[in-house]
Amino acid sequence: MIIGGGVAGLSAAYYAIKKAQERSLPIRVSLLEKEARWGGKIVTERIAFDGGHFIIEGGPDAFLATKPWGVALCKELGLGERLQGVNPRLKNTYVLHRNRLAPLPDGLALMIPTNAQAILKSPLISWIGKARMGFDFLLPPAPANGDESLGSFISRRLGREAYENLIEPLMSGIYAGDGDALSLAATFPYLRDLELKYGSLARGALIMRKQSNGKSSPSARSAFLTPTTGLAEIIEALVSRLQADHVDLRLGTSATGLSQSGRGYLVHLESGEVLPADGVILAAPAYASGHLMAPLDAELAAVLREIPYASTATISLAYRASDLPRQLDGFGYVIPRRAGRRALACTWTSTKFPHRAPDAYALLRVFIGRAGQEEAIPWNEEALVRLAREELQQTLEITADPLISRVFVWENSMPQYNLGHPTRLARLSELLQQHPGLALAGNGYRGIGIPDCIHSGELAAETLMALWSPRTE
Hints:
Blueprint: E1 2-3, H1 7-22, E2 30-33, E3 44-49, E4 52-57, E5 63-64, H2 68-76, E6 83-85, E7 92-97, E8 100-103, E9 108-109, E10 112-113, H3 116-121, H4 127-134, H5 150-158, H6 160-175, H7 184-187, H8 189-198, H9 201-215, E11 224-227, H10 232-244, E12 248-251, E13 255-261, E14 264-269, E15 274-277, E16 280-282, H11 286-293, H12 298-305, E17 309-320, E18 330-334, E19 343-347, H13 349-352, E20 361-368, H14 381-396, E21 404-415, H15 421-432, E22 438-440, H16 450-467
Parallel strand pairs: 1-2, 1-16, 2-12, 7-18, 16-22
Antiparallel strand pairs: 3-4, 5-11, 6-11, 7-8, 9-10, 13-14, 14-15, 17-20, 17-21, 18-19, 19-20
């Protein structure tokens, strides 16, 4: 039994069937999703317009190719040849600085600046701030002393200005979090490894980049990939495969709790139905999984509920290219927390992925919502469109009415890997050992990206296959 029909839950079902078939084990899989559609935060709208299509993503718009699990699953589902990279002609990502867009300096490796000339030329950092960044080569590594926040670590190595103007806006684009609260060990542990191994972030990043360049070929694909008509292709392919494998797929089905039944479990549904299961994978948000676990294990439920989540929204707006005062000559821009804006980033979708808008049209997507700032956001569609248009007018001077607008609000959707997160994960692992046949999957634990979610589903399926043999009739 799998509860949660996002990409983690769907992947768990897929890999459970695959592993059972490889071992010639009879297995029955049920997948429950409380919403009326599959995919969780992956949702794609394909809108026919003027002889072409706008492809609008409501959640993530691509996945990281360097984490292998997304590409591997796509290939298994027959989508390998449909994967598209970002526009190879683009170079710039911008940062909002003093109400103007300034390009990120070249030479960012592992999020760490490594090109001294580019840093010296960049208006994002003052001369005092640039001098402070150079101390990274001189400062000794700090002794091990438990977890440290990302903001504290970067400020300690590169200075506060480099953190606030360079690293924080990039980090916010990934986690929508507060870097002074996010756990370094849970988000970017390799940065601490660079400090300890090389004594300097920049020195370590340079060495790692040289090693990586030596292994890659000139024809290497884009770091970010997406199927031609959107990420929903992955969901559609998974559902089709699970239907062919006779998985019991139930939309609009809410679970309310778990209880023990001998060596197995009972899944209680909102409808009053009770479903027996030899094993259960909880692929819902951590707080929702905590609610389901409460009747079975109060301590495990409490630890799950300790993982905080932030609410976010994406607003996609389509325009005639001729209505834009400036050329969209990059991937978009990010906004530092210190700028005080309610938006945190804007992706220039139609230049990042040219196939996502008809010729002569532009598609932009504004991201709203940061941890700790949710109260300042109006969470209704009309107000969010107005907020997004204000951001585009203020930064890009776009005053035309959009031809199309699409709003997606994700309430409590972005897990925050705050200080103490590794300790919580260790405690969850200990408590789960008391419940054979129970596993967790999803973005609340060891990675928030699509490949991480896919991998979590695969690992959860493997955990159950290794711990129990399903009963046969």
